[in-house]
Structures are given as C-alpha cells and as structure tokens.
C-alpha cells in the first residue's frame, strides 16, 4: 500500500512539474503575429508599416514578434481586410474602398471636399472614427487609420486643362476616385493601385487619379505626362491598419497598452509621410519630363460644382443604409477641413 501511495504521489509530482515546465516554456516564447500589406517594400508607407513591427518588438521587450509581408505576398489588396477577419493574417493594411459599400461611415472621409494635405486628412479620419465609433469595424480591432494627400487627375499623352478634356478618356479609379472621374466626364476603370502602372503603360487607360506621391512611390511618373492641379475637387483615400479581434483579445493587457501608444504615434508618422512623399513625387514627376497644368479660379469652381453631387448622393445612400446622421458626419468633416487647412 505504501509503495502504491508513493508511486501515486511521485507520478503526480512529475505531472505537475511537467505542466509547470510546459507553462514556463509557453510564456517564455514571444507572441508571433503576421502583418499583410499591399504596398511594395520600397514604398514609404510600407517602410513605416515595417518600422511599426520593429517598434512593437522593441517596446514589448521581445514579447511580440511581427512577421511582415509587403507587396501582397500574404493576401491581395482586396482580400486584406477579410483576410484579417478570418485570420489569414493577424494584421492587415489596405484601402477601405477596395471593399466598396462595407464602410458607409468612413467612406465619407474620401469625398471630394478639396483636401490639400495628407496630414490633415489623416487627422480627420481618426477624428471621425473616434467621434462616431462606426459599427462597421466591429469585426476587427482598429490599430489606426490614415489618408493620403489630394487626389488629382494625371494623364498620358493628353493634358486635361478643363473638364471637357476628360470626355472620352478612360481613367483608373476606385471607390470615390471613380465617382470623381465620372462626375468630371471621364470613364472610370476600377482596379487596385498595383495594376495602375501596367494599365497606363499598355494604354488600357489614358489616365488615373491619385496623389502626387504615387508618381514616385508607384513609379507612375514614368508612364504619365500631365497632372492637373484642380485642388477644388481633390479627394483622399482612406487606409486601415487593423488586427484580428481574437488575436488582439488574446494579448496581455500591458502589451495592448504598449501597442495602443505606438498606434497613436504611427498615425501621425503616416500623415507626415504622405505630405513628404507628395513633394518627392512632384520632383520625380517633373524630372521625368512631366508637366503640372494650372487651373484658374473659374475652372476650379466648375470642378467643385461638378463633384458636389457626389457628396449629396453619399448622404442619401448612407441614410438608406441606416446611417441616420450621414449629414452630420459630412458637416463634421467639412468643419474640420475648414479649421485645419
């Protein structure tokens, strides 16, 4: 009997030691996360995303390690959000408009309201999210949001000096930018940004609407000749950085707090980077022989009037989708733009 009791106690102690040892080993290893981004690794926005990964590892003391996958190597641009929800990646960075209609509140930020700065657009999109807390993000944990500088018309072979010049021309555009093209008289061809260079190069489209930064960041300055400076109709594009909700909830509280602080800092970095890269994009465009076409005040007013119905239509459609305060959201953005620009 004593031998049986001894054997039982010994087995129990060994089991406890084994479990304890296993627990120590699990706790000792870092949490590993995967991060999917559609930007190519050389783009400043991709470099910032990668630096976010390194900063998380640094500030968590190695408790968290993030494997970074740029250039659509883990999930494609259009799949990135759903891929994060489904756990194909733990984090995702892409464009909200690539899943059109899914983000009725946040899409208000993209409207052609005359943006002149990526920093301001980035501040506004985060203000909108914080104030209105849209349910459309309930299936993820939002890290932060950001938005590029003024989206403008770029063309190949033919300059657009007035709206009538857009007629009969095809432009790559998606989401709001496609609506802008249509409102100005062009024909939108909705494709993701990574396909734009080849479309312009092969003549599938004769132009595209995008911020100056893309001339260098996506090398589009190599395949376009003119940029029309009609800032009165300038839109922006909203970008998300989100984490799988279950993965976020599994992180220790101190790690969540650290990441949240980094997120606030990186949102500002992205906003500043959009403006800096716009300047770089302008220089690159001009160095390739590109020309920036000026637009006088009278023509600017015509462009602004032409795109105004996009805002009105947004409010009407949003209300039909149950966004009763759609006009309030637009008014909030307009007021912030007026105060900040």
Would you kindly provide a brief summary of this structure?
By secondary structure, this protein is α/β, with parallel strands linked by helices. The chain is built from 11 helices and 11 strands. The model is unreliable at 1-27 (pLDDT under 50).
List its salient traits:
5-stranded mixed β-sheet; disordered N terminus; 16% strand; alpha/beta; 341 residues; 6-stranded mixed β-sheet; 2 domains; 11 strands; D-Maltodextrin-Binding Protein, domain 2; 48% helix; globular
Protein model, in words:
The protein is an alpha/beta fold and 341 residues long. The protein folds into two domains: 30-148 and 237-278, 3-Layer(aba) Sandwich (D-Maltodextrin-Binding Protein, domain 2), CATH 3.40.190; 152-236 and 288-340, D-Maltodextrin-Binding Protein, domain 2, CATH 3.40.190.170. It is built from eleven helices and eleven strands. It has a six-stranded mixed beta sheet with strand order 7-6-8-5-9-11. Strands 2-1-3-10-4 form a five-stranded mixed beta sheet, sandwiched between helices. Helix 5 (175-183) links the parallel strand 6 (170-172) and strand 7 (187-189). Helix 2 (44-59) packs antiparallel against helix 9 (253-287) and helix 5 (175-183) packs across helix 10 (297-320). The model is unreliable at 1-27 (pLDDT under 50).
């Amino acid at each position: 009997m004593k031998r049986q009791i001894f054997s039982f106690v010994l087995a129990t102690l060994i089991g406890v030691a084994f479990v304890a040892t296993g627990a120590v080993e699990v706790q000792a290893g870092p949490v590993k996360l995967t991060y999917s981004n559609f930007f190519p690794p050389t783009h400043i926005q991709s470099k910032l995303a990668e630096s976010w990964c390194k900063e998380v590892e640094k500030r968590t003391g190695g408790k968290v390690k993030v494997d970074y996958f740029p250039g659509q190597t883990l999930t494609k641009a259009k799949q990135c959000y759903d891929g994060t929800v489904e756990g194909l990646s733990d984090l995702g960075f892409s464009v909200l408009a690539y899943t059109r209609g899914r983000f009725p509140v946040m899409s208000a930020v993209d409207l052609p309201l005359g943006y002149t700065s990526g920093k301001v657009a980035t501040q506004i999109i985060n203000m909108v999210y914080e104030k209105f807390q849209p349910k459309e993000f309930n299936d993820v944990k939002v890290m932060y949001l950001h938005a590029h500088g003024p989206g403008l018309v770029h063309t190949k072979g033919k300059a657009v000096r007035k709206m009538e010049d857009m007629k009969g021309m095809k432009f790559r555009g998606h989401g709001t930018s496609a609506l802008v093209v249509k409102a100005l008289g062009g024909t939108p061809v909705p494709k993701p940004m990574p396909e734009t260079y080849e479309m312009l190069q092969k003549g599938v489209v004769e132009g595209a609407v995008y911020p100056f930064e893309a001339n260098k960041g996506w090398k589009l300055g190599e395949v376009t000749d003119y940029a029309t400076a009609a800032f009165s109709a300038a839109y922006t594009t909203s970008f998300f950085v989100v984490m799988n909700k279950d993965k976020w909830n599994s992180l220790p509280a101190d790690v969540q707090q650290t990441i949240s602080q980094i997120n606030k800092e990186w949102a500002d970095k992205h906003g500043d980077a959009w403006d800096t890269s716009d300047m770089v994009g302008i220089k690159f465009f001009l160095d390739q022989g590109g020309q920036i076409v000026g637009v006088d005040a009278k023509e600017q007013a015509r462009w602004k009037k032409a795109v105004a119905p996009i805002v009105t239509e947004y409010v009407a459609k949003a209300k039909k989708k149950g966004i009763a305060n759609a006009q309030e959201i637009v008014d909030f953005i307009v007021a912030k733009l007026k105060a900040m620009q």
